[in-house]
Amino acid sequence: MEKILGNKKFLDRGWPSRALADGRKNLISLADSDWYERRNIVSPSYSLSVLQGFIPTIVEQSLELVESLVKTNGKLVPIEPILQRHVLLMSLETSMGLKDRIDDRDRRIINEALERFFRSQYDRTAKVHRWNGFMNRMFDLITGNDNGSSSLQKCGLEIVSRRIQDFGLNCDGNEKIFTDFKNKRQQAFMDHMITMLIESKNSKYKLTMEDVLDELIAIMASSYESIVTASQWALHCLASYPEIQEKLFESLANFDENDLNITIPFVNQFTYLDQCIKEALRLRSPLFAMFRQVNENTQIDAEYTIPEGTLALVFLYFVHRDPKVYPCPELYDPDRFSPKNVQKIPPEAYVPFGDGSRRCIGEKLAYLELKLILASIVKKFRVITNDQDVRVKMGLASHPVRPIMLQFIDRCQTD
Fold first, then answer.
1. Three-state SS string across the chain, please?
2. Do residues 284 and 233 touch, judged by C-beta distance below 8 A?
């Protein structure tokens, strides 16, 4: 892991990332100097001060998610569709600043486009005859398949155009509006990219509207998918181990899920919540595997040499189940990540968000969203499942083979 994912020389995710990007140039598909330049532009969008500004939005959407779960009346329901709606709204606000600027029709269009996009990406990963870009386009043309990419592109263009108009940035000479916009303490990801788009006209590294759209689609897709996937697996783990769920509930006694002014340091004090999430991500990491293009001969221990030019595929699923690091690896045990035990885990043995220079840039935001979502749900409900053995299918993310069905029993009615 250290010699492949942790190697600063191996920044290219190889042809699979460019094939799946379908011609788009973003942090996922770029490599080397182009990737470094784009990373430097995007990084400020995920600073702690920006994340702190997003907490009211995350809390509000978590509470709305709880209200949706109340309406299930304790019945067994598939959790993924409910999570999808609220995580989409959360993503639209934190990444795009658009929660109150789009209607239900726009949300539905984006949601459907994202679903088609992920189905298409899974097909390209799993079916060899679709790896070639030309063959993939011909297959879509012959079958009339809509991969959702054009819909996302269209939605993205409309969103960016609307955001530009909101701030009058299309008006020549309106310096005051642009200055006020630029100096906002909380800039959503898209706001920051629009600022960089305008400022790059006078810099060496120039951005285009297409670059902004490419990053917009990448962040919409990756943040939406990872949070939905991680949330449903974490809830299933807690439902499968009621004693752990109750211990988590007790540890959240001082957590006020209605507090819009909660701070990141305060959230980080709930260490058992952090342990439960990390163990769920170990068992069900949103990503199954990661690619790296190895551009020099690399020795692994004394026995193996990976030749220059090899495309290395690192399976996180198996790394996170190494019995030498994780005894009884299929067991959900948050105590593995207790302050005492976590020191025994080598850094390269736990990498749900990757490792090295190409570690996921949105990791801190993802953890924050997961903590507030799970804390809000566990404070309100006992989560129950009738199916503890839900298997995983390999794709871009670790999806369940069959829908995860959960019950949400109001704690006030059962105490």
1. CCCCCCCCCCCCCHHHHHHHHCCCCCCCCCCHHHHHHHHHHHHHHHCHHHHHHHHHHHHHHHHHHHHHHHCCCCCCEEHHHHHHHHHHHHHHHHHHCCHHHCCHHHHHHHHHHHHHHHHHHHHHHHCHHHCCHHHHHHHHHHHCCCCCHHHHHHHHHHHHHHHHHHCCCCCCCCHHHHHHHHCCCCCCHHHHHHHHHHHHHHCCCCCCHHHHHHHHHHHHHHHHHHHHHHHHHHHHHHHHCHHHHHHHHHHCCCCCCCCCCCCHHHHCCCHHHHHHHHHHHHHCCCCCEEEEECCCCEEECCCEEECCCCEEEEEHHHHCCCCCCCCCCCCCCHHHHCCCCHHHCCHHHCCCCCCHHHCCCCHHHHHHHHHHHHHHHHHHEEEEECCCCCCEECCCCCEECCCCEEEEEEHHHHC
2. yes
Position 97, amino acid: G
Q: What is the pTM (predicted TM-score) of this model?
A: 0.86
Q: What does the pLDDT look like over 34-82, one tens digit per residue?
A: 888 888 888 887 888 888 888 988 999 999 999 999 999 999 999 999 9
Tokens of 116: 């088609």
**pLDDT one-digit tens code per residue, 153-212:** 677 677 777 666 665 554 443 444 445 445 554 566 777 777 777 777 666 777 787 888
Residue-averaged pLDDT of the chain: 82
Mean pLDDT of 15-30: 76
Which of the two residues, 10 and 153, has the higher pLDDT score?
10
Phi-psi region of 370 (alpha: psi -120 to 50; beta: other; left: phi over 0): alpha
What is the pairing mode between strands 304-306 and 298-300?
antiparallel
| Residue 65 pLDDT | 95
Q: Token digits for 283?
A: 């068992």
Can you tell me the distance from the alpha carbon of 370 to that of 295, in angstroms, rounded to the nearest whole number?
36
Identity of the residue numbered 22: D
